[in-house]
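hey so u asked for the seq, here:
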Amino acid sequence: MAAHALALGWGPLRLGSSGCLRGRTPRGPSARGSGLPAPVVLGRSATASSRTEAPGSDLYCVELLRKRDYEGYLCCLLLPAEARSSAFALRAFNVELAQVKDSISQKTIGQMRMQFWKKAVEDIYSGSPPHQPVAIELWKAVKRHNLTKRWLMKIIDEREKNLDDKAYQNIQELETYAENTQSSLLYLMLEVLGIRDLHADHAASHIGKAQGIVTCLRATPYHISRRKVFLPMDICMLHGVSQEDFLRKNQNKNVRNVIYDVASQGHLHLKQARSFQKSVPVKAFPAFLQTIYSGPFPLWFNSSIWKFTPALEFTRWKVPLPAWTAPPRTSI
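ran it, structure tokens below
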């Protein structure tokens, strides 16, 4: 069955009358039935002379992001024109990996898909990407910006480890996952912007950890709907809260304290990232656009961007609050 699925092609992209850059599609689990064709390998490679065999691969990435990661989609639109297509490719790659866990019934199928992406990255760096839209656009981005292969492989490896439906043992495990996924993606985004700076990397590391922690919180309502809880077990045990308390949507003080402690760790990383504000090159700031949110803390960026915040809200740091009242979010 899995082998048959991997042999299927990806159909033509149908954007409809509104076009790929107009209209808003709901985020989170509700977007999963959108009808977007699942891109898979055709069993052949695309060389430099054959890349035109995949028309619309750039639009495919745009539409994939618009449907599955709307915040990332908007942030890419705000990037400099020369970096935009590569940013779409990177975030589409991240979406492809993130949605594997939620779309499989068996771990072995997920491992097969991760293996495909590992080989795809190897082929991309050898100049022969698989005939798959995201892989082709990623190959173009690698050629254009000389992206570091290590960061791409770290994202795949960490996503593969996360295929097990297990809660994080402690907050450090969650931070490690966030560092290897979200932070690695930010390192690549910085390279797309032409930034290779130690201070920017330090800021990206902390911002990525903050994003990963907050995404874990925002995904809690979705996970609860599937009768799963992934919040760090050490913090839950500290406050005497069980997974059943979350599944029953208990709103007592102990549950609120768990949410508060997890969110506070994310806020701590955000404060540490801000300590590099004066050292980070201004050109690097667009890579961190997804840190825009509503709350009592000042923005890093020009206030003219504030008009985008209703769609870009990363979290509402109004804690403590029950986890299921946070904006719905999957594992992206």
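Residues 1-53, 293-328 have pLDDT under 50 and may be disordered. The two ends are 26 Å apart (CA to CA).
lmk if thats what u needed
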